[in-house]
């Protein structure tokens, strides 16, 4: 472009012409446009996909509908069949079949909880919860064995199944005794399923709530700590290993299909509780738990600890509402304190002295594990198996439901592949636990389902995303996008304006040539 001509001003002076820049070559314009477009091409085709890939949150697919079905109780009917062996050796085969048929019909009619069903089977049945043993006698009677899972039935020797009145009377009596034998189990299951029984008293409901509060949460392994504390220099030794083997090991072995146990012991001298009164109240027992001078052993390997404290001192525990005193007190979800009065000259506590404390600890351990109170130990343990399997199944289902609702309510939360694998494993074992609910196999699968569901819910990488809101992302990207984005945007705007101006000039030139 040539320089503009000089202009003469009114005063006779001459205004110097402004030298304009030369016209930009077309190749330079195209080169500059290609440079700008290349930057944007790199950003759009390479930068944005790479940023999206590296910053996007991975969300593994979860079977949300299936998880919510389990949480709502729609995926499993929660049937706990209780098998009762009908060992009627004193009756003819036809009479035994008729009596079993009549009794089963009455049990089905009287059933007030669909989930709990008593099923009679003729003859000896392996893994039966209870065995019915018939003995002819003078009158009708029933005795629940205190050592075995058996119910002994006495019936008049002249009873015959061919007589409808005799058969109906005996069947009615059997159904009544069987329902009474499993009454506590039925009440606990109804409480777990939140399905109150008909005509259930408020006292029973309160007792079931206390049982839930008192018992410890299920764990496959518990750590038992036996502690001997004394307020002086003696006793300084005790036969705790022998006492555990003699008085508690048989019960722990019976519990082994349901729980595993580890045991350790400790002894501490000159340990004094915070309360010095001779008769302790219920409130005073908190000092045995919180006393800083008593370093109780912590949980080992993540297993919950059950504390059994034996304190040698001249103190007793007062019973609320009465003048009577006792030597032990069970503390819910913690353990037991047993006060053992010994003379000052006793330097060693032998296993015979430990007999009563160990028996007390054993009974309280069953209570802390949620074992029913009625019936023989084998019957109580079979009931505990069914209760624990149902409880674990419900807990695992609830955890899966919470995880499903969490993933829906927080769409920006990360769901790693390990979570999806854990959910799949939990659902698989829930299916197997539901199919075998109430038996040892059902307990095994329910235990794995609960463990997998909890691991998936508390996945560390997923939980961390809960505390990373969108405001944090903006604060991270703004310092980077400002210096990089502004030159790119301004350069693009300048090129667009230049392109529009060139099109306008070209159009005007074309119109002039046409004229």
Label the overall shape. Answer: elongated
Poorly predicted spans: none
Count of helical stretches: 14
Please give the alpha-carbon distance between the first and last residues: 24 Å
Mean pLDDT: 84
Corresponding CATH architecture of the largest domain = 3-Layer(aba) Sandwich
Rg over CA atoms: 40 Å
Biggest pleated-sheet summary: 5 strands, mixed
Structural class: alpha/beta
Q: How many domains is the backbone divided into?
A: 4
User: CATH first level of the largest domain: which class?
Assistant: Alpha Beta
Strand arrangement, largest sheet?
Answer: 4-3-5-7-6
* CATH topology tier name of the largest domain: Collagenase (Catalytic Domain)
Helix content: 40-55%
Strand content: 15-25%
Q: What is the strand tally?
A: 17
GO biological process, one term: GPI anchor biosynthetic process
Membrane topology: Multi-pass membrane protein
Organism: Emericellopsis cladophorae
Region (Disordered): 1-26
Structure description:
It is a multi-pass membrane protein. It is found in: Endoplasmic reticulum membrane. This is GPI transamidase component PIG-S. The chain crosses the membrane at residues 34-53, 474-493. The chain is an alpha/beta fold and 515 residues long. Helices cover 49% and strands 17% of the residues. It has a five-stranded mixed sheet. A five-stranded mixed sheet has the order 10-8-12-16-15, with helices on one face. The protein is elongated, with a radius of gyration of 40 Å. The model has no long low-confidence stretch (mean pLDDT 84).
């Amino acid at each position: 472009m040539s320089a503009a001509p000089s202009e003469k001003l009114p005063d006779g002076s001459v205004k110097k012409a402004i030298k304009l820049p030369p016209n930009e070559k077309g190749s330079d314009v195209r080169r500059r446009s290609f440079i700008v477009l290349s930057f944007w091409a790199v950003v759009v085709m390479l930068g944005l996909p790479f940023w999206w890939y590296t910053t996007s949150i991975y969300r593994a697919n979860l079977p949300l509908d299936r998880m919510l079905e389990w949480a709502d109780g729609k995926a499993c009917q929660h049937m706990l069949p209780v098998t009762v062996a009908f060992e009627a050796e004193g009756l003819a085969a036809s009479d035994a079949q008729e009596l079993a048929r009549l009794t089963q019909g009455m049990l089905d009619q009287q059933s007030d909880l669909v989930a709990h069903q008593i099923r009679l089977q003729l003859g000896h049945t392996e893994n039966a919860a209870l065995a019915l043993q018939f003995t002819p006698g003078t009158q009708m009677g029933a005795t629940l064995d205190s050592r075995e899972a058996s119910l002994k039935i006495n019936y008049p020797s002249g009873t015959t199944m061919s007589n409808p009145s005799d058969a109906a009377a005996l069947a009615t009596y059997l159904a009544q005794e069987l329902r009474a034998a499993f009454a506590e189990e039925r009440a606990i299951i109804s409480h777990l399923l939140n399905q109150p029984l008909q005509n259930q008293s408020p006292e029973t409901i309160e007792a079931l709530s206390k049982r839930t509060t008192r018992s410890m949460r299920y764990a496959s392994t518990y750590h038992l700590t036996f502690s001997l504390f004394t307020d002086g220099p003696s006793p300084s030794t005790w036969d705790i290993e022998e006492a555990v083997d003699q008085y508690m090991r048989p019960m722990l072995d019976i519990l082994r299909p349901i729980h595993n146990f580890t045991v350790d012991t400790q002894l501490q001298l000159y340990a004094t509780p915070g309360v010095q009164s001779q008769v302790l109240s219920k409130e005073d027992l908190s000092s045995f738990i919180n006393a800083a001078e008593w370093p109780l052993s912590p949980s080992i390997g993540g297993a919950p600890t059950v504390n059994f404290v034996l304190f040698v001192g001249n103190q007793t525990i007062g019973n609320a509402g009465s003048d009577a005193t006792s030597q032990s007190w069970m503390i819910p979800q913690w353990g037991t304190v047993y006060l053992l009065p010994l003379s000052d000259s006793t330097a060693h506590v032998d296993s015979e002295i430990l007999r009563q404390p160990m028996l007390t600890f054993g009974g309280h351990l069953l209570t802390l594990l949620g074992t029913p109170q009625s019936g023989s130990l084998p019957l109580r343990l079979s009931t505990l198996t069914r209760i624990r399997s149902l409880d674990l199944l419900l807990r695992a289902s609830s955890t899966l439901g919470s995880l499903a609702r969490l993933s829906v309510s927080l769409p920006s939360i990360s769901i790693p592949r390990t979570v999806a694998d854990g959910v799949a494993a939990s659902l698989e074992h829930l299916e197997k636990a539901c199919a075998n609910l109430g038996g040892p196999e059902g307990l095994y699968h329910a235990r794995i389902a609960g463990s997998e569901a909890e691991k998936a819910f508390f996945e560390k990488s997923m939980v961390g995303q809960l505390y990373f809101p969108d405001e944090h992302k903006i604060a991270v990207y703004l310092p980077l996008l400002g210096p990089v984005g502004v030159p790119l945007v301004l350069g693009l705007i300048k090129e667009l304006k230049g392109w529009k101006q060139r099109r306008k000039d070209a159009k005007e030139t074309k119109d002039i040539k046409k004229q």
